[in-house]
Amino acid sequence: MTRSLTRSRQLQLRAEQLLPGGVDSPVRAFRAVGGDPPFVARAEGAYLFDADGNRYLDFFGSWGPMILGHAFPPVVEAIREAAGKGASFGASTAAEGDLAELVRRCFPSVEKLRFVSSGTEACMSAVRLARGFTGRNFVIKFEGCYHGHSDAMLVKAGSGVATLGIPGSAGVPAETAMHTLALPFNDLEAVKAAFAARPGEIACVIVEPVVGNAGTIPPAEGYLQGLREITERDGALLILDEVMTGFRVSLGGAQQVYGVKPDLTTLGKIIGGGLPCGAFGGRADVMDKLAPLGPVYQAGTLSGNPLAMAAGIATLRELMAREGEIYSGLEKTTKAIADGVAAVAREAGVVLTTNRVGSMFTWFFTGEPVTDFASAATSDTAAFGRFHRGMLEAGVWLPPSQFEAAFVSTAHGATEVEMVVEAARKALVNQVTS
Ligand code: PMP
Prior knowledge:
InterPro entries: 4pyrrol_synth_GluAld_NH2Trfase (IPR004639), Aminotrans_3 (IPR005814), Aminotrans_3_PPA_site (IPR049704), PyrdxlP-dep_Trfase (IPR015424), PyrdxlP-dep_Trfase_major (IPR015421), PyrdxlP-dep_Trfase_small (IPR015422). It is found in: Cytoplasm. It catalyses: (S)-4-amino-5-oxopentanoate = 5-aminolevulinate. Homodimer. By secondary structure, this protein is of the alpha/beta class. The protein folds into two domains: 6-63 and 323-433, Aspartate Aminotransferase, domain 1 (Alpha-Beta Complex), CATH 3.90.1150.10; 73-321, Aspartate Aminotransferase, domain 2. It has 15 helices and 14 strands. The chain has a seven-stranded mixed beta sheet, sandwiched between helices. The radius of gyration is 21 Å and the shape is globular. The two termini are 18 Å apart. 4'-deoxy-4'-aminopyridoxal-5'-phosphate binds at residues 63, 118-120, 123, 146-148, 159, 208, 212-213, 241, 243-244, 268, 278. 4'-deoxy-4'-aminopyridoxal-5'-phosphate binds next to helix 4.
């Protein structure tokens, strides 16, 4: 298939004149994989349609939110109804309490929460709150984890930061970055050593419980429990960044899957059903340090936006009503995709390591087990780029970086499994012959 991309190319040229790199978020550019991104005109279920009318099987799902597929009718209807009543009031609504109740039912560790408009804000605010609560300055994060683009979190971060090789972003003062300690993921000894070096000085450990932003990396057995024990012993807070994993790896996120209770949790993506929304929450005694009750300031003109609340409520209601069926279905579909493509890679003689937790997964072009950012970085990113281009040509749109997770939705079924395996067969054979 050779697609016509005439309209997308015109739109790209215009965008490059107006937006740096032609994009509003660097991960959307195809710099790491080559080629130019199609411009999306609309989406439905598991498919994206570009401005030239080409159809793609979508494996990034707006980077996670679209767990029910695109334009899921109850979500569309909820947004339509809310929009008819007014887009924003800057005053409290019942919908905020409705969504908060649903979140708390899914995440029992979240006694109180506050809505924000992005995952970045959720993580930035949670870290500020942890510092305010503990009166300490240092923060531990892990190499290859991404917690949004606030200054303190842009140290050895994953996602676009890793893709573009910008481990310490320009514009972040050294005085800020020095309070962020970036350690290797899945290495409890490194965490113990950091606490031993700075007892009583570390405010929090923030972690993606299943890393998605270095590609998918599951926690080693006992790792999250170890983080819980070490932080508790020192009086530091444990923040689980479940912006990606929340409502994704299970309804109650990774904390439900791995049985660990954090002090604070950050949420985003699925919680807003595709509209801009995030949240942070956890222990009531910690959350009550926030203004207007406490001294830690945090605010937002559009926080708890009625449209975002409506889309989030409709999404969570669906996930809660059909929890068993949805998560076992996602597991089955994603396993079939992972197994199918692994078999095709073996036949083609391509070395591939597949990491998967539920419906998030990554194909790494390395023979090594991928357990942290260093092992993820052994992946042959040029081979990933060729694979990405081959898959796109075959009508399958993967996240355009080795250091990102792919996502499956409830709209992906047997037909889509077959499509992606067949596309991989072509793309991987070309790997070997090109
Ligand atoms: N945390 C995690 C784990 C994420 O995956 C992301 C976004 N990919 C963020 C935080 C930041 O969220 P946002 O892009 O909505 O600011």
